[in-house]
Amino acid sequence: MKRISLILVGALFLSALAACNGGKSNEPARSGASSGQGGEPAEQVELRILWWGTQDRHDLTVKALELFEQKHPNIKVKPEFSGFDGYFDKLNVQVSGGNAPDLFQTTYQFMSDFASRGSLLDLGSVELNLADVDQGTRDIGLYEGKLMMLPAGINASAFAIDPALYEKAGIALKDRYTWEEFAEISKQVSEKLGKGSYGTPDYMNNSDILTYFMRQKGKSLYDGNALGFEKQDLVEFFAYWDAMRKSGAAPTAEMTASVSSGELEKQLIVTGNSPVLVLGSNQLGSMETLTNRKLQMMLWPTMAGGQEGHYISAGISWSIYARSEHPKEAALLLDFLTNDLDAAAILGANRGVPISAKVREAMASSLSEIDRKQFAFIDELSQIATPFNPNQPVGASEIRNLLINTTQQIQFEKIGIEEAADEFMSKANAILQGK
Amino acid sequence: MGNRAFRSNLNAYLFLLPWIVGLLLFVLGPLLGSLYLSFTQYNLGSAARWVGLQNFRDIIADGRFYLSVKATFLFVLVSVPLKLAAALLIAVLMNRNVRLIGLYRTVYYLPSLIGGSVAVAVMWRQIFGDQGVFNRIVELLGGQGTIWTANPRYAIYTICLLAVWQFGSSMVIFLAGLKQIPEYLYESSGIDGASKIRQFFHITLPLLSPVIFFNLVMQTIGAFLMFTQAYIVTKGGPMDSTLVYALYLYEQGFSYAKMGYASALSWVLLAVIALFTFAFFKTSKFWVYYESEGGKA
User: Which of residues 20-59 of A touch B (CB under 8 A)?
Assistant: First the structure.
């Protein structure tokens, strides 16, 4: 069974990915070279590496880095890490100051903003073994035809749910709901679990859910350098969540405003106040550690008469700083994190399903229970996922904040849905036109 | 100028040299740099392009600029008077000889040392959160609780309170000022039958007015520049109600890399602070009492 699931993962989601980016045929990086030996420095070199995550990721990564230092005695690695909240602020400041770490975690939602400022190194210019990485995965990191980031793992955004809480609310779980059904059960959870508990967080401000919703309507969040949807679509999206909040299925405006999406530790699911959380599939293990309860992944709701909106991508990628003094050694470390079997044995699938086919094969026999769940979910998802273009325009990170700001005005009932949608459309367009 | 005078001046200049170099390199240079950038469109990473007054025109049309101005003025107007009042009150209480007074002074100064830390921000969000102490008190008094840091009507006041709580440095300066007031004034007025309250308003306050003035100017400037508390407690939210000016400037400059626009914003701020400081100095002659000027108010 394990075998079969793995082969499915290998075959299915990678073909799905390849399909996602079928149009492009750039050869982004020198592949085929065997890893490493060219980059070994003659004298002592210190590398800095930066990532976000929760404590379990910090522990695993630090352990893997120690192994790297053993294998490369002339390279010392200085780890820097934090939670997601504030991570990109910090990185932005470091990049502006010209002292960003040599290697850092990033994600496709932010890549264009960094790449357009010339902060990312073209990974095609360093030695990196990508022989076991398929084209679709590599294409995720392309910016204007150059490989600016390499996915650390494949994942998909979906719901993480707490089945016990649903049971407590008297709900017999189905595999997947429609948006209407989801509204109903969420309301029921709020009512059954009492004050302070909610069926779902309010995801009116969540750009992943918005992306999914637009894809269900046959549109997209972005179409090249413009918005990929109309105002009316946004009004519909706002209206759904507005009703969720008003019915009590989703929390009050204050509650939503008091938790930022980047603070995994503070989400309602952790305190047992909601059975639902939007989560990257790779974070399931971290989340179980935080909640101390068994969780599972669930697909997002379907839309009556709509299309499949789910997609597979890479939640976490690595980039090398364009002004790194040691690009060769940074590439060596990136290669280690991508291809080294011993490193993979430590890191597991904490950043997503590994992108190297060889690594996946080697891991198959020793998957932890949580990683098995994750692989199985990606496997399930890959059978329904539709193509997704991860390349986002410059200004995407500002638009994420715009969505939060605009929806707060709806949540606090300062302006109506129509007005908010108008405001979002005009401001987002202004940002995209580079005003 | 004699050789001797030159030699002694030279020594002074040599001692000042690190500071002068620092001023030129790290203050004046960046200052002029940002003045230039404020007239350009400069997105980090790309070359600066001269756009004349465009940034300033954009500022006038920028809705969030006004929100940040509103939040900043609210913060300055609420936090500065409260902070000075708290500092003065505690300083008066601390200005006596009781056992362990040194310990008390230290304890009251502590918040100023730790107030900008993330730990305190977390604590603040806890205190004013849904399950926080503050809500318990409100509910005990029969009121309706809320999440104070996440409520657009109240969030800025929780930030004000956090700033007021850090009154330590003003307190220390007040304390030094209080020690300068001659004891015989209290003694003789006491013999004439003046009450403690009367003494405070007619002796302490007038003689302390130069120190109050100094604290007022410094705290006002500090309040205009406030960043840390808003950044770590509320991140400017909800609904930009705590988007103080420095935070907005930071967001434009560092989160969105619009350094030209951020520079223009910073020069507007500089002008506003200069204006306020100028106004304070102009009005000071009506209420600040300098003994050395022969007591002419």
Answer: none
